[in-house]
Amino acid sequence: MGKTFAEKILSRCAGYDVTVGDIVFAKPDFCISHENASAICATFKKIGVDNVFDPDKIVLTFDHTVPASTIAYANAHRVVRKFAKEQGIENFYDMNKYGGVCHQIMCQEGFSAPGLVIIGSDSHTCTSGAMGAFAVGVGRTEMAGVWATGELWLKVPDAISIEVTGDFQPGVGAKDLILRIIGDMRADGADYCSVEFYGDGIENMSIADRMTICNMCVEMGAKNAVCKPDDKVRAALEGKAKSDKWEMVWADDDAEYLASYRYSLEDIAPAVAKPHTVDNYATISEATGIKIDQALIGTCTNGRLEDLRAAAEVLKGRRVKVRTMITPASVEVYRQALKEGILETLLLSGCTITPPGCGACIGLSSGVLGDHETCISTANRNFKGRMGSKEGFIYLASPMTAAWSALHGEIRDPREHFESASDKAGGGQA
Amino acid sequence: MRIQGRVWKYGDDINTDYIFPGVHTYVLMSDEEMGTHAMEGIDTDFTKNAVKGDIIVAGKNWGCGSSREQAVKCLKARGIGALVVVSAARIFYRNAINEGFPVVICPEAVETTQPGEQISIDFDKGQITNAKGVYSFKPYSEHIQSLMQCGGLLPYIRQSLAE
Q1: If you average pLDDT over residues B94-104, what whole number do you get?
Q2: From B112's CA, which of A189, A291, A312, B7 has a CA 20 to 30 Å away?
Q3: Which CATH class is domain A269-415?
Q4: The pLDDT of residue A429 is above 60
Q5: pTM of structure
Q6: Distance of CA A347 to the CA centre of its chain
Q7: Minimal CA–CA distance to A252: which of A159, A156, A164, A144?
Q8: Any CB–CB contact under 8 A between A36 and chain B?
Q9: Is A374 helix (H, G, I), strand (E, B) or coil?
């Protein structure tokens, strides 16, 4: 019997063939933490070792509370800066070091690569599966333990395979696909599983799209998510890979999966996740006409150049009816969007560009919701109170849906934009 | 070990924003202070009135959402004796083990337990007793048990490093 991706990676970690349910001790290739490193530093010091296992394998970013808006946040940043300096951690993406959301930095800067084991003290660490890595989120104490010992226990998970075929229709994106999958599988449908995506639909997607998909798999309980790596991943790592240990790893054809699903991208339509759970799937027609007070486009889920470009294409030459926050996933995304004129288009449309980071998704800055306000958001969670007031409502959607809805002040089908665009083109020819 | 306590009962998909809201997540605070915010996002009655020894009983996918460990720490600091659930989200479950906070998976007991009733949990026998009956649950695996017996990951690592 062949092995799943997860079984292959963890067999390599163990040095022998493992199967589902085995406990394996793994040595991560990279460990990522953000502001919660401030708490990890304190826990690390309680363990009783002086130095981290390998400063070059630890990556630190600031993304949840940047720029610091309270004294408490600023002081937490100070703790991390001091620790990074003491320990000689050079992969520290402080605000003067060209940073961004941790998951974006991992993929963009060449830390995440096929076959590597990535551990992160953030639930969306699974985003790095877009680069073919085995990437798993853990808690703070666990990360302190890894910093001290260089290893952690991992249970070999069951796996779910998802074959994706074809290509998106105009106005439809990766966010619509993953909202549909989570809606089908529900919030615990992939609990403790490795979710393994492959097929020509995945090959047709950009790495940005793959990141959106892998990012959200934790919303159905996944331990990790991964897209079969290909030449796009290889090209992204060219001259950038931070480890030379990476190699193309994928599941065997005869691997045993807990369940296997197939999605054709032609069948995927614009969608939203309604309040207050991510699996509360609705087609766009069921949500059309719901009034909104704010749109949020960006964050680790949909804050890449491709996402901002898609939003700008919809917004170009028009004005938004509601306040619209644009939160690029990193300074590099911000810079590229500036260079391409995307930011100018967005600003002229009436959008507000926030500093790169988590933005309003976590409800700490850059556009929190007031009582009874409704937001359409490209982020990954719509839990009650997530973006501010417990009386607020969050609808999750793609950048195209969020942008088109922002123009109308209500949730609308972004395909209307593409239909009118093609009508104009057709009319011009006639 | 055997514990007994009063039940707080919840449904499915209680996420970490409900257990410990994001607004407190990036502020450094003591475990005790975390305890004062427990369940603030969903049940301020609990936040005000839960007492040491109480037990939480809930549906599936408890602790879904963020990796924030305070979701475990706030319950432990509040003196909650254990969590009995249909299922728990992976990172919460792992954080609970690392904190030495017992999470019991027992759908049958969840189904028949009523809010406010007294139930007891015998960890050695792997049994939960409520007003309706006695229910068995599967104990932790050997590795996890040794970790729990040490009191969680930190004491376990300290012990391993000393050996």
Answers
A1: 95
A2: A189
A3: alpha beta
A4: no
A5: 0.95
A6: 24
A7: A159
A8: yes
A9: strand
